[in-house]
Amino acid sequence: MTEDYRRARRVQAPENIEVLDTMTDRVIGHVGNLSETGMLLTSGSPLVDDALYQLRFELPDGTGSEPIEVGAHLLWQNMASAPGQTWAGFRFITLSESSQACLRAWLGPSQ
Hints:
Elements: E1 11-12, E2 18-21, E3 26-34, E4 38-43, E5 52-57, E6 68-79, E7 86-95, H1 97-107
Antiparallel strand pairs: 1-3, 2-3, 2-5, 3-4, 4-7, 5-6, 6-7
Protein backbone atom coordinates (compact mmCIF):
# COMPACT_ATOMS: atom_id res chain seq x y z
CA MET A 1 0.00 0.00 0.00
CA THR A 2 1.28 3.45 -0.88
CA GLU A 3 1.16 6.15 1.77
CA ASP A 4 0.07 9.65 0.73
CA TYR A 5 2.18 12.23 2.55
CA ARG A 6 0.50 15.32 1.09
CA ARG A 7 -0.70 17.88 3.59
CA ALA A 8 -4.07 18.53 1.97
CA ARG A 9 -6.57 15.79 1.17
CA ARG A 10 -7.35 15.51 -2.53
CA VAL A 11 -10.70 14.67 -4.08
CA GLN A 12 -11.01 13.21 -7.57
CA ALA A 13 -13.23 15.19 -9.93
CA PRO A 14 -16.43 13.16 -10.31
CA GLU A 15 -17.06 14.58 -13.76
CA ASN A 16 -15.49 16.78 -16.42
CA ILE A 17 -14.61 20.17 -14.86
CA GLU A 18 -13.22 22.61 -17.44
CA VAL A 19 -10.54 25.06 -16.31
CA LEU A 20 -10.40 28.45 -18.00
CA ASP A 21 -7.30 30.66 -18.18
CA THR A 22 -8.93 34.03 -17.49
CA MET A 23 -6.06 35.95 -19.08
CA THR A 24 -6.65 34.33 -22.50
CA ASP A 25 -10.32 33.37 -21.96
CA ARG A 26 -9.50 29.84 -23.16
CA VAL A 27 -10.06 26.41 -21.65
CA ILE A 28 -6.61 25.03 -20.82
CA GLY A 29 -7.64 21.70 -19.36
CA HIS A 30 -9.75 19.69 -16.95
CA VAL A 31 -9.49 19.06 -13.22
CA GLY A 32 -8.04 15.67 -12.29
CA ASN A 33 -8.26 16.25 -8.54
CA LEU A 34 -8.65 19.16 -6.12
CA SER A 35 -7.54 20.09 -2.64
CA GLU A 36 -7.77 23.28 -0.60
CA THR A 37 -4.26 24.16 -1.73
CA GLY A 38 -4.08 23.10 -5.36
CA MET A 39 -5.13 20.88 -8.22
CA LEU A 40 -4.00 18.32 -10.73
CA LEU A 41 -4.90 19.42 -14.26
CA THR A 42 -5.03 17.40 -17.46
CA SER A 43 -4.13 19.73 -20.31
CA GLY A 44 -3.95 19.57 -24.07
CA SER A 45 -2.62 23.13 -24.26
CA PRO A 46 1.02 24.11 -23.86
CA LEU A 47 1.76 25.47 -20.38
CA VAL A 48 4.71 27.57 -19.25
CA ASP A 49 6.92 25.99 -16.57
CA ASP A 50 7.02 27.81 -13.22
CA ALA A 51 4.46 30.39 -14.46
CA LEU A 52 1.61 32.08 -12.61
CA TYR A 53 -1.92 31.59 -13.94
CA GLN A 54 -5.31 33.13 -13.23
CA LEU A 55 -7.82 30.26 -13.45
CA ARG A 56 -11.58 29.79 -13.18
CA PHE A 57 -13.67 26.62 -12.85
CA GLU A 58 -17.13 25.64 -11.64
CA LEU A 59 -17.65 22.88 -9.12
CA PRO A 60 -20.37 20.33 -9.92
CA ASP A 61 -22.35 20.77 -6.72
CA GLY A 62 -25.79 21.38 -8.20
CA THR A 63 -26.32 24.58 -6.22
CA GLY A 64 -25.44 27.01 -8.99
CA SER A 65 -22.70 28.49 -6.84
CA GLU A 66 -20.31 31.07 -8.19
CA PRO A 67 -17.28 29.97 -10.21
CA ILE A 68 -14.06 29.41 -8.28
CA GLU A 69 -11.32 31.87 -9.27
CA VAL A 70 -7.74 31.24 -8.21
CA GLY A 71 -4.27 32.58 -8.78
CA ALA A 72 -2.14 29.47 -9.28
CA HIS A 73 1.53 28.59 -9.65
CA LEU A 74 2.45 25.78 -12.07
CA LEU A 75 4.77 23.60 -10.00
CA TRP A 76 5.36 20.74 -12.44
CA GLN A 77 4.12 19.10 -15.62
CA ASN A 78 4.66 15.66 -17.17
CA MET A 79 3.56 14.00 -20.37
CA ALA A 80 0.41 11.89 -19.97
CA SER A 81 -0.09 8.57 -21.76
CA ALA A 82 -2.45 10.17 -24.32
CA PRO A 83 -0.61 11.94 -27.18
CA GLY A 84 -0.51 15.72 -26.73
CA GLN A 85 -1.76 15.57 -23.14
CA THR A 86 0.10 16.62 -20.00
CA TRP A 87 -0.51 16.32 -16.27
CA ALA A 88 0.15 19.59 -14.44
CA GLY A 89 0.35 20.31 -10.72
CA PHE A 90 -0.82 23.74 -9.55
CA ARG A 91 -0.53 25.34 -6.11
CA PHE A 92 -3.17 27.95 -5.30
CA ILE A 93 -1.63 31.26 -4.25
CA THR A 94 -4.73 33.48 -4.17
CA LEU A 95 -8.31 32.49 -3.48
CA SER A 96 -11.15 34.71 -2.30
CA GLU A 97 -12.85 33.85 0.99
CA SER A 98 -16.09 33.00 -0.81
CA SER A 99 -14.29 30.75 -3.32
CA GLN A 100 -12.40 29.09 -0.47
CA ALA A 101 -15.66 28.44 1.39
CA CYS A 102 -17.26 26.91 -1.74
CA LEU A 103 -14.19 24.74 -2.30
CA ARG A 104 -14.13 23.54 1.32
CA ALA A 105 -17.85 22.70 1.20
CA TRP A 106 -17.37 20.75 -2.04
CA LEU A 107 -14.37 18.85 -0.66
CA GLY A 108 -16.37 17.79 2.39
CA PRO A 109 -15.12 17.05 5.89
CA SER A 110 -11.47 16.13 6.43
CA GLN A 111 -10.73 12.56 7.34
